[in-house]
Amino acid sequence: MGGDLKHLVIVKFKEGVVVEDLKKGLEKLASEIEAVKSFEWGEDMKSEEMLRQGFTHIISMTFGSAEDFTGFLGHPSHIEFSATFSTAIEKILVFDFPTVVVKASA
Amino acid sequence: MGGDLKHLVIVKFKEGVVVEDLKKGLEKLASEIEAVKSFEWGEDMKSEEMLRQGFTHIISMTFGSAEDFTGFLGHPSHIEFSATFSTAIEKILVFDFPTVVVKASA
């Protein structure tokens, strides 16, 4: 698992956005593009509002190499999805980083 | 893997903080407390400054159940570490959410 790159996106959607449709789009994207090694999402329900500052959804994708990640960013499906996705967003944070796994799931 | 809870912490440290020491503390914490199922961290180097808003470090812990997570929060080692950690932080975001794994690593 060492050497993986993580693409972590944290968003607050605009009011009225149908999040379910975007999730479907993301799932399609992750399954279509082979370079996406793993994909998880989550909806924050538990942390204190003060600590999450209005952000609600977490999208986490893993790539096996920098080349895979670059390929993903430039993939026509990603470019198309990003255009739709960006219109739905009130605010966003993006982090791209090599993951350092200290303790792995058994 | 379904049913896991994720504890995601995103921070910007104060200037002058020795991040290496905090990492060691986190590693110790994750290895000491059995309830921590997996632990990863990362340092953002790649995303655009505008998109990461000054945050630099990502800490991600996974727990197998809500009970494990609650046990972790109340664990003396976690309480002690949190006291140190909080003095080192300029800003922080915390997300706690059930992970939905759409595509798992092969």
How would you explain this protein's 3D organization?
The structure is a homodimer of 106-residue chains. Chain A has 106 residues and is α+β, with helices and mostly antiparallel strands. Chain A has a four-stranded antiparallel sheet. Chain A is globular. Chain A has helices at 19-32, 49-52, 66-74, 76-87; strands spanning 5-13, 36-43, 57-63, 89-98, 100-103. Chain A has four helices and five strands. The two termini of chain A are 13 Å apart. In chain A, 37% of the residues lie in helices and 36% in strands. Chain A binds chain B through residues 1, 6, 8, 10, 26-27, 30-31, 36-48, 51-53, 55, 58, 62, 92-106, and chain B through 1, 6, 8, 10, 26-27, 30-31, 36-48, 51-53, 55, 58, 62, 92-106. Strand 5 (100-103) of chain A pairs antiparallel with strand 2 (36-43) of chain B. Chains A, B: Homodimer. Chains A, B: It comes from Stephania japonica. Chains A, B: Residues 5-97 form the Stress-response A/B barrel domain.
Topology:
The structure is a homodimer of 106-residue chains.
Chain A (H helix, E strand, L loop, with lengths): L4 E9 L5 H14 L3 E8 L5 H4 L4 E7 L2 H9 L1 H12 L1 E10 L1 E4 L3
Antiparallel strand pairs in A: 1-3, 1-4, 2-3
Helix pairs in contact in A: 1-4
